[in-house]
Amino acid sequence: MALAKTLTRADLADAVFGKVGLARNEAAEIVELVLKQIVYALERGEPIKLSSFGSFGLRQKSERIGRNPKTGEVVPITPRRVIVFKASNIMKDKINAGLAKPAKPEKAAKAEKAAKPDKADKAAKADKIDKADKGAKVEKAVKPEKGEKAAKPVKTAKPVKAPPAKKRAGSSG
After folding, report:
1. Which of 13, 61, 79, 157 could form a disulfide bond with 27, CB atoms 3.0-4.6 angstroms apart?
2. What pLDDT was estimated at residue 136?
3. Per residue in 158-172, pLDDT tens?
4. What's the number of CA atoms in the CB half-sphere (13 Å) around residue 17?
5. How are strands ordered across the β-sheet holding 80-87?
6. Nearest to 83 by CA among 67, 52, 65, 61
7. Structural contact between residues 136 and 155, judged by C-beta atoms closer than 8 angstroms
C-alpha cells in the first residue's frame, strides 16, 4: 500500500474555497474556527457529536505505575484525560464500501495460479526431504505434477559399523 498524502488544514481550507467560493483567507479562517470550537468543547469536558461523521469524547485515566523499558525503572504515570473518537456507522460503511467488492475473474485466476508451487519450490522440498532422511536406504520421492516425469529414488550408502572390540589375551571372564 502506498503512503497517502496527509490531509492538512490548508487542504481543508482549499476545499472550502473551491466549494463555497469565499476568498482563500476567509476559507482558512472558517476551518480554524471549526477546529477551535471542537478544542474548546473538549477542554470544557463536553462531548461532540457530528452527524454522519462520528463523536469525540474524553476519557479520564487514573494514576498508574509504568516502567522505563530501557532501564526497568519504575515511573509513576500521572492522571490525565485522553481524547477518544468513535466513527459513525455511516462513516464506517463508506470506508468499508470499497472492500466489499468481489474480485474480478481474471484477478482470481491469476491469484490461484500464483498460489501453486513452481519447480523451484518442488526442488527445495526435495532437498528438505533429503536432509531429513540421510540415514535411510531410500529417500522419499516428491509426487510429480501433470506433464512431469517421476523422480527415481536415490540409494544412499549404509553407515559403516565399527568392528567389535577384541578381547585381551590375559583376561579371564
Report:
1. 13
2. 47
3. 666 666 666 666 555
4. 13
5. 48-50, 54-61, 80-87
6. 61
7. no
pLDDT digits 0-9 by tens, 4-17: 889 999 999 999 99
Rounded to whole angstroms, the Cα distance separating 157 from 140 reads 15
Strand partners, 103: none
Which of 150 and 69 is assigned the larger pLDDT? Answer: 69
Q: Domain segments of the chain: what residues?
A: 7-46
The model scores a pTM over 0.90: no
Cα–Cα distance between 35 and 14 in angstroms, integer? 15
Burial class of 13 by CB neighbour count within 10 A (0 to 12, 13 to 18, 19+): buried
- Per-residue pLDDT, averaged over 74-85, amounts to 94
CATH code of the domain made up of 7-46: 4.10.520.10
* φ and ψ at residue 107, rounded to 5 degrees: -65, -40
Tell me the percentage of the chain whose pLDDT exceeds 70: 56
Q: Which residues of 16-28 are buried (b: 16+ CB within 10 A; e: fewer)?
A: bbeeeeeeeeebb
The whole-angstrom separation of Cα 8 and Cα 3 is 15
